[in-house]
Specification:
By secondary structure, the protein is mainly α. 84% of the residues lie in helices and 0% in strands. It contains three helices and no strands. It has helices spanning 2-10, 23-80, 86-116. It starts with a helix and ends with a helix.
């Protein structure tokens, strides 16, 4: 027995190759975390695009409101100058007021939606 122990002591130590039990799990975790990061980046980009579209849409509505108000003022000045018949004045004023109310309704709905967030 001592002879066997002496022979083992003289030999160089050998390493045992043990397979890594977490090898497959490591790759799964890397892929899952990467997928989550890609999703979160794409989600934040999408939110930024939607915010930019809402901002552009609101600016367009504000411009349309100003245009309609200018048209109403022009219509009033034409009426005072007797350049338009009363019948046509009433019809155009009714149409412009209707369009203006729709624009204001959209602006109000956008403001309320922004406050709800």
């Amino acid at each position: 027995m001592t002879l066997l122990l002496l022979q083992l002591a003289q030999e160089a130590p050998q390493t045992a190759n043990v397979p890594n039990a977490m090898g497959a799990h490591t790759w799964f975790i890397l892929i899952a975390v990467s997928a989550f990061l890609v999703w979160s980046i794409s989600y934040s980009i999408q939110l930024q695009k939607e915010a930019l579209e809402r901002q552009k849409g609101r600016e367009g509505l504000l411009d349309l409101r100003e245009t309609l108000l200018d048209e109403i003022a022009d219509l009033e000045s034409r009426k005072e100058a007797d350049a338009i018949s009363p019948q046509k004045y009433k019809q155009e004023l009714k149409n412009l007021k209707y369009r203006l109310s729709k624009v204001l309704e959209k602006l109000g709905a956008g403001t309320q939606a922004a406050k709800a967030r």
